[in-house]
């Protein structure tokens, strides 16, 4: 999960309220001080940090918690509303008849993001997408884009030997102008110099973009604000994509700085796969950040080729209390289609499934490694062994370990994990509300609200 340090910092600050029904001035100041430190550590600027913490302090004094709401939850709700207010309303992009101009500085992940967005548009809206590669300054940009988009059946136009970006765009529009969505990737620079400005203006005049999207690396932190402002002045930025949110603690600075410019954040990138692009909605992002979860977002992660009927059958089987290694294997296969352990668990409420959603990054990485190793181990088991794991005694364990190239300890760890999962499923079976929620998660027409 992006901004994991900020999440821990906020939860640590609010931990001062755990079990309390009232709070005195000294305790409130200490909590606000901890929250201020957490926001500044995530690279939020001083003005925004002061505004958020001052409003929290004032509202904690003036607003009464709703009946049945703890003081800690009351403070969490206030922080949620203040952060969502800061990020602003989500921007809606009409999917059809779009010409999108991608701009940004050098090294921000613009070409990769162009591929991600093209694949996202095709996956979500089933449209005919075309991409023009107009970066004539970086060798291999066209080849990179072709390689990323070939598996998705998206046409890419480029002229690798042509040094004139404007002529490439002009020819590309002739070639791909009938596409539902046309995306134009442009060159970046180390700074917004005169040559880049002139080239961008020429391209913008040709494209006549319906959307001009600025790509910014989260690592730039608060510097994202001035960069966004300069590009907006030049070509009229209509939205911002913040990349590499999973690789820095400064992502809060990038998000908050962009928010001050008035340019809405439309996507965020986490991960290296073409599928690792997420439509940005401030309320759902902050909900995940604060450990409230985002079940609808988890549903949105599911790929088109995920067998919904099979998923429902598996859910029904788990709810019945039956849970074999075969079931566990199917679970793991579905998870691998949706994404990494980190992406999946970041969408769960922190307390769900025994606190899986609150796991730290190192724990998630260890779980990811275990899942990949467990798949190999189960490939060395017979169908009977996977259906009836209780038969796996010492001799069978030795054979499986040898066949899968692992230690016997690894096989026993798989069995221990299966046993823990089986007990968890028994607990879910006895929880009617959670059982209903899990079944609802398999339905696309279900709306989930935040636990406010």
How would you explain this protein's 3D organization?
With 452 residues, the chain is α/β, with parallel strands linked by helices. It has three domains: 84 residues, Four Helix Bundle (Hemerythrin (Met), subunit A); 193 residues, P-loop containing nucleotide triphosphate hydrolases (Rossmann fold); 143 residues, 434 Repressor (Amino-terminal Domain) (Orthogonal Bundle). It is built from 20 helices and eight strands. Strand 6, helix 10 and strand 7 form a beta-alpha-beta unit. Helix 7 packs parallel to helix 8. The longest helix has 22 residues. The two termini are 21 Å apart. The C terminus is likely disordered.
Short synopsis of the structure:
With 452 residues, the chain is an alpha/beta fold.
Fill in the keyword field for this structure:
Four Helix Bundle (Hemerythrin (Met), subunit A), Rossmann fold, 3 domains, eight-stranded mixed β-sheet, disordered C terminus
**Which class best fits the helix and strand makeup?**
alpha/beta
- Helix and strand pattern: HHHHEHEHEHEHEHEHEEHHHHHHHHHH
In the CATH hierarchy, the architecture of the largest domain is 3-Layer(aba) Sandwich
- Beta-strand level of the residues, as a percent range? 5-15%
Report, as a whole number of angstroms, the end-to-end distance: 21 Å
Number of domains as seen in the coordinates: 3
Helix content: 40-55%
CATH superfamily of the largest domain: P-loop containing nucleotide triphosphate hydrolases
Total DSSP helices: 20
Task: Describe the strand arrangement of the main beta sheet, using strand numbers.
Answer: 3-2-4-1-5-6-7-8
* The top level CATH class name of the largest domain: Alpha Beta
What gross morphology would you assign?
flat
Count the E strands.
Answer: 8
Give me the CATH fold name of the largest domain: Rossmann fold
